[in-house]
Write the structure tokens for this entry.
Amino acid sequence: MISKTHKKLTTVYTAVFGLFLIAFVGIVCLGIIWGTYVERTEDVKVLANEIARENRGLILQHAQKETNGPPLATTEDDYDISGQVFFYIVDTKGQIIKADQPVPVLRESAYFQIMNWNPLESTKITTVKLPTNKTAVLILAAHQVQRGENLLATVYVGRDVTAYARSLLRSVFTLMAVSFIFLFLAAMIGYFLAGKVTTPMEESMKRKKQFIADASHELRTPLSVLFTSIEAVEMDMDNRLSPFSMQIMNDAKEESFRLKKLVDDLLTLARTDTGEIELKKEVFSLTLITKQVLRSLRFAADEKEIKILFDAADSMDLNADPERIYQLLFILIDNSIKYSSPNSEVRVQFKKVQNTTGCYTQIAVTDDGPGIPFECKEQIFQRFFRVDASRSRDIEGSGLGLSIAQWIVEAHEGEIYVNSELNKGSEFVVLLPNP
Ligand code: ADP
């Protein structure tokens, strides 16, 4: 199946890139042909213009003879064609020795450029405004004629390259337009190909999530039955079991409890993936909920003689889903108790904070535990991630608690992060927006 997909993708990729290559080569070839054609045509037009200018007198004489009319004036046409070449040979006093002047409309601007020539420049390209309000582009070059050390004259040659400039500009615009079209096509094809690659991945991910959701759901009921059955047997046994059987019973109860918690967590995450869980927001007392969590965790804290400091003097309300906030506080405080060494302290604090993005309720759970290595600060929120397996081995857990905590916070459009120093402790901070 995979090799079939691989072959199919290879064919599609080759076809698409081949088409791109052919189109690209085709356009470049057309560009070169068109550019050369325009340049050569322009040269021939210039030649035609020069011949027409040189033979103007002859043409007018001929026309007059044919019509038997009055002599025709020999004024030259208005500037109509670019490309002509002109020159001025100027002596050291600024007198023109010889000149082949451009068409009258261009004459004044060309002369001005030459008379204001900077001797340091040997060539220059310039634009000049014509009396007809058109703009012409000129390329000028100067060559000094010397005899020994003495300068005799300077030859200035100019060429009107307006048509070239225009065609160059046209080529640049065409190239830009073609590039945009290609970019757009590339983006479309990229999107299409990405879809081809990611669709099977997404489908397999969806199937995996669905499997976890279904399995957790199916496991939940028998596990609950198993757990309550063990508890019922425990109540009914009246010391009739041997110490060995009692031990086995206790172990079975603990393991079934762990399994039940794991399945519950998996089911919660599976439901968050499918968007099945909806928040039921209401205004409630955060202080009261925290006290409830602390009551549930008192046994675990007492067992390790951990002191939980919670200043409940200031009652604080929150507009959120109380069930989910209970779960969030439970995960964070439970972790702090779990990972702290005996006889230490865990602190729970609330306060209102204001920053550039708005007003928040800040919940901080701090402990003096082993801390979290810097490189794991992001990873601890990933599913099944546990810092250093050897350190976590003796501590119960599945690596799902903080993923659930992160989902709860993000579903409330809040933020969760950890400040921690190795062997000094950790501070889990939650920011929940105040509507
Ligand atoms: P777990 O079920 O393993 O506790 P969590 O998702 O709640 O899963 O936590 C992920 C990992 O982050 C834990 O395995 C632990 O290594 C680390 N961790 C979480 N809270 C603390 C804490 N208060 N102090 C030190 N490490 C912690």
Q: What stands out?
A: The two ends are 52 Å apart (CA to CA). Residues 301 and 337 are 6 Å apart (CA to CA). The domain at 67-160 is CATH 3.30.450 (Beta-Lactamase).
